[in-house]
User: Fold these one by one.
Assistant:
Number 1:
Amino acid sequence: MPWYPLVRLIPRVVASIAASEFPLMYQLAEWIAVMASGIYGMLLARQHQMDFIGVFSVGFIVAFGGGTLRDLFLNRHPLFWIQHEHYPVVVFAIAVAFSLVPRIPRWAERALTVSDALGLGLYSVVGATIALEVGTSHFIAAMFGVITGTFGGVIGDVVCNRVPSLFTSAPFFATCAFVGSWLLFLMDAWGVDRALSFPLAVGFIVLSRLASLHFDWRMRTLEFEDPGE
Amino acid sequence: MPWYPLVRLIPRVVASIAASEFPLMYQLAEWIAVMASGIYGMLLARQHQMDFIGVFSVGFIVAFGGGTLRDLFLNRHPLFWIQHEHYPVVVFAIAVAFSLVPRIPRWAERALTVSDALGLGLYSVVGATIALEVGTSHFIAAMFGVITGTFGGVIGDVVCNRVPSLFTSAPFFATCAFVGSWLLFLMDAWGVDRALSFPLAVGFIVLSRLASLHFDWRMRTLEFEDPGE
Amino acid sequence: MPWYPLVRLIPRVVASIAASEFPLMYQLAEWIAVMASGIYGMLLARQHQMDFIGVFSVGFIVAFGGGTLRDLFLNRHPLFWIQHEHYPVVVFAIAVAFSLVPRIPRWAERALTVSDALGLGLYSVVGATIALEVGTSHFIAAMFGVITGTFGGVIGDVVCNRVPSLFTSAPFFATCAFVGSWLLFLMDAWGVDRALSFPLAVGFIVLSRLASLHFDWRMRTLEFEDPGE
């Protein structure tokens, strides 16, 4: 493994964060979202008995999949993980560390539920904000919130050959992102400053997600009944 | 669910159709194609016991998947469902209505065969036309007809964890789109006006698709025989 | 099938190769990579009992999937298979020929191992080189080498409803592409001419891949042990 070039990247990482034209709050939110969802993907990969390449790749796909779709669909270049070139390096480093852990303790899985909810909240609100800045309608922007927040996991599930858990009757997930995005737009309309409305919307998504998990709030499955058979 | 913003969109929807720089015929064709393939995706989702989010998402993926690939591959921005921002709203409304239907009657499935064929015909000819306008070769344009017409369903199948029915030995589907696109190019070469050749090519695709289903026209499966085992 | 337009393409194919602004070495490398990975995809399709459309589609996806992701992610337009419009025609012709073969002899599969390794080596080094030219960091460029070399096969596996063999504990594949890309960058830093370093890096990837297959070099599977169950 070529470690030397990785070490040489560190000053560039610091410079890249400092010089970012992005406001610091969004930057920090995206940073945590990348790590939280990357780790979630790596856990998924280990559940499917993959090797290091699989752990890194699925972590990469879950961490960057939703944001990559957002950037491609909105024609934003360079992609956010090419512009912030330290993101993939960090995911790589986490994958290396993660591969050295022989077994995943049970409390880690519970901790991951929180970090996954955090990733959902942060990515969704960042995604909805970016879409709005590009000039889409509110409905489309809310959809971009959902896509950014959830499609990394969807692609990860597809790659691991499972029906995406997002689509089956599971505790609220995409719904939290959708409602949370509208909440932000509503606060925008009321003139609430983003410095306040941004963390409020993220908080709503994270808490409603965790509450859905805890109280098992879910939509009912829609049956396909065929009276002719 | 934030219904109020949806209602406010209606005048914008009307304005967006009226002010469209796209000729009305293409516009109408795309509109019907979106609805037909969206409903097809929602039926697929219900067959897989998904909830409302799944029904909307798979409907969205089948309705816009092929056209999104076309727009990304040809670098056309904004994507057609971002430009025509009422399309996703309509798919959302259909998904809501669809989720309130407790059971799908048998005749609906038969009706869907027709609307699916219609979606194939319309999307394929629109896709091939757009590729040609961008300046691709005829062969590439015919492939864009096939991609636009069929890849929504392919991605929908992949997301539902099935081998895409397009690739297994099934009644002609992609073949109809490919031949229909060439038919349009042939009529272009003969100087036939698009106002005539467009509906003719769509009609050929729809009818050949329905005939393939009815008479079970299909290609033979290619075996992988290994004499060494 | 409309053969006549295909025949008319031949002079355009020759002109397209001759007038290519790409250096001849890269052009030839890409050409062989397209054919090698296209045939690999078609073999995969036949193993899954697909028909002609499936054989062509999976061949197309494996041949162009990785490079399409590279071009989309780096915002390079037109896509390489739209610019070099003879590539899809060649894959189409191979699919026709391939569909006429009633059974695949055992030696063909062994020959394919070599051509698959060749495709990996060529696509990876071309992909890494292109990313570097666009101005990405070395780490990102090495990742583009891996994406270009391997993701056609990953998407092909997903479409065929298998967990991508890349991610499970299989003989080194992505690792060869990653290390080979860094080898090229290292030789660049040492001032080695690309006319020498390019074939050396490709050769390293091809030989290390074949050696991994022969000696069964692989990473160990990472278990997901849960002491609580």
Number 2:
Amino acid sequence: MAQGVADSLLAEGLVRIASEIDGAFDALLPVPEDARARLVEAMRYAAIGGGKRLRPLLLTSVAELYGVDRGAAVRAAVAIEAIHVYSLIHDDLPCMDDDALRHGKPTVHIAFDEATAVLAGDSLHVFAFEVLADPATCADPFTRIELVQALGHASGAQGMAGGQMMDLVAETSEFDLQTVTRLQQLKTGALLGAAVEMGAILGRVSPEGRTHLRGYARDIGLAFQIADDLIDYEGDAATAGKAVGKDAGAGKETFVSLLGPERAREQARLLVDQAISYLAHYGKEADLLRAVARYIIERDH
Amino acid sequence: MAQGVADSLLAEGLVRIASEIDGAFDALLPVPEDARARLVEAMRYAAIGGGKRLRPLLLTSVAELYGVDRGAAVRAAVAIEAIHVYSLIHDDLPCMDDDALRHGKPTVHIAFDEATAVLAGDSLHVFAFEVLADPATCADPFTRIELVQALGHASGAQGMAGGQMMDLVAETSEFDLQTVTRLQQLKTGALLGAAVEMGAILGRVSPEGRTHLRGYARDIGLAFQIADDLIDYEGDAATAGKAVGKDAGAGKETFVSLLGPERAREQARLLVDQAISYLAHYGKEADLLRAVARYIIERDH
């Protein structure tokens, strides 16, 4: 695949999914005409119009490999993105990372207030499971319950939230490379893995048949986090749309502090090549997933 | 039913469910041997050994009317209690109600720290849906997805979290009786209603057949909140196990401020009588539900 073709495939994919996810959040989160309006406005503020929509792009791209109905895939994608957005709202709170900027605009607790930010995060959290459980996502209850299980497992104490806890502990501990890898597999990798898994669930791919896709997801998850560490190390806040240089400031070990920037960059490249090799038995139809893998380490935010 | 019999039925029911819920949380939340240990310890601290377990008692009592397997009912009860506990952890945060005491012991953000409290709440939140989605709860995926839907709907922006938002707004607004009623129906009533609904879902009661149970749940939900307002108005912190006198201090309108304590008490009594009347076509097997309804307004914490 020529680089120009891959670039335009990716660019189209990113634009398409961004518009679909914004549209779905807009339709699924109408503002009520009572005192709850402020809550739903905060949910919409956080959920609509920001972020790369990487998890939705992964989920819908995998679903497309198996001919899944686009509407179903987009609903599942909205659910996983709602989990991602809720985790960012809570992560940005003063008692957590205390960030004032997210996707280039004030964080929810700055734009609204802390209590509203806590509740907006909580509400997007449960919203994700409501969307998945709704028959509108998919008529088959077994598929829906599998989606709930996959997303629940990836986002709880043994997944994303567990990784966030390890991240808090990292500020006062000296983690080695193995522990940092484990931390990142939980904090970021679990949800990226769930995106791929949920696409496969919708495609009714057998658990055995998901092995290659799991390998792909695991490798891009780690590459993603190394790229994030590099952006934090050398990026600028205006491009990143969020504060940078925070890890070193917090005395946190990262892939960059443990490997150095050159070896970290090399490691990310190897992981992306390896991820793409897992897609070897797919044809052109997996070109978007290949382009996403490369994008993971080429993005600057 | 003689008062003494009802009392001992209720006392036995409360002791039994408390032990079952504690046992289930203990078994389902093993502490991992890595940096996530602190997170799971905070979840266990909040979830085990506290609270009246009213929602689990309601859910299992309804399930028992329809001969549901006790293990399945207890798992669903653990899920709804996890939602209740997560909401208390977040509600107690400094940016929300800023409470230092809950069930007679320091709140999670005091015993641990704020960031851990946010994450422990988030983790118990998703834990609830993981438990429901697990085949161990019930082999039939349709029943499991219905449980997820009922709990999701009751706890999100159109249920509990929406009520919490209205509660925040109430501190700076003058709500009338109708708005306070609506607030409480969302904040407390939705989850109490879900407890009854989930018991009925496990019992495969047809949606039409659930009308009486819904009436029962709606009335005890409102009675519960009036009783809570009365405890806040006239109780003492040692008995309540939490701070009291907070509503008046915050200038919040409650059933007591709007109706006066005497009319509020009378209203709660009427609601309990009405709730019990919805159980008229059940025999002795609903005696525990009748006793729970009376307990709602007779408790002092």
